[in-house]
Amino acid sequence: MNSSMAMKLFNILLFCTPIYVGLTLSISAHAGGIGLLKKYDCASCHALTGPAPATLAALWQRKGPDLFYAGNKYRQAWLETWLQQPKRIRPAGMFYMNHIKPGPKRNMVDTSTLTEHIQLNKKDAKAIAATLASMKTHTALIQAEKHDASISPGPLGEMLFDKIYGCMACHQIEPGFGGMSGTEVYTAGKRLTPEFMLSYIRNPQAWDPKIWMPNAHLPDNNKQKLVNYIIKLSKESNDE
Ligand code: HEC
Ligand code: HEC
Q: Which domain covers residue 223, as residue numbers?
């Protein structure tokens, strides 16, 4: 090999090394994440491979949300933070009927039956978040959506969410205000991708065939307004 060829080779190697190192690092973080999911036995409560529950009995017994499409659903940065500092997202747990007790006026959540989530250190949370972000079995559903941030919810946003479509019967728009059989939505903008929200609102059963959220057959413009309203709530709220 003459010296100019050797120089060329050297330059190519020099150029490639950082990319190569970067690639191996992200691959190894990801491989580490798979090992950690096993180590912490996350699959004892979460489905890491599909499909979603196909019967009501299976739905009611589900211990934690399905994670096999986590990469289509969650923001990776939020996953990383939440896994280090988990906070309750469903005020009455996975299936509200398992966690309510009679109260003086109406049913109340029996918080003694709800358990705290496992908390991870920063390194493990980062590796697991990277692995979860790579789990994308529902990319086709996400690609069918186009979020339009310019459609302002305006004062109508809350009207749509509360009075017109009755979403508030199941979802809280601020702590303690709203229904309890769904997730709190005032943190959803921080947790979820806008495309996931659009798709889920379009057809909840496409994601989770037996879930009790009804398909409201909304016109596209109102779906955009609702998603932008939910994102606005998250910006106003200090909750993570
Ligand atoms: C004992 C059961 C159990 C185990 C084990 C468990 N989780 Fe969870 N996980 C839950 C429940 C229940 C929720 C819902 C929390 C809520 O709504 O407040 C949840 C929520 C989550 C969420 C938030 C997603 C969402 O939409 O609510 C993530 C991410 C998550 N778990 C990841 C993990 C990972 C990663 C592991 C392993 C390190 C793990 N979980 C272990 C029960 C569990
Ligand atoms: C009958 C109760 C019910 C009604 C009414 C309802 N939802 Fe839901 N919604 C749910 C349940 C249950 C889930 C799934 C929660 C889970 O993953 O554990 C859900 C999930 C969602 C999600 C994903 C949230 C997340 O945090 O993962 C969004 C966004 C959402 N609903 C918006 C709406 C909107 C907008 C409306 C009104 C058009 C609505 N919902 C009406 C019960 C309801």
A: 40-236
pLDDT in tens, 53-75: 999 999 999 999 999 999 999 99
For residue 140, tell me if it sits in a domain: yes
In a domain, 23, yes or no: no
Our count of domains for the chain comes to 1
User: From the alpha carbon of 94, which atom of ligand 1 is closest?
Assistant: 12
Atom of ligand 2 nearest to the CA of 183: 26
Global pTM reads 0.90
Residue 28 lies in a domain: no
DSSP 8-state secondary structure symbol assigned to residue 101 = E
Instruction: Name residues contacting ligand 1 (CB within 6 A).
Output: 40-42, 44-46, 63-65, 79, 83, 88-90, 94, 117-118, 120, 128
Instruction: For the chain, list residues with pLDDT below 50.
Output: 22
> By alpha-carbon position, which residue is closest to atom 34 of ligand 1?
42
* 208 located within any domain: yes
Question: Could you report the per-residue pLDDT of 24-44, keeping only the tens digit for each?
Answer: 555 556 678 999 999 999 999
Radius of gyration in angstroms for the set of CA atoms belonging to the chain, rounded to a whole number: 22
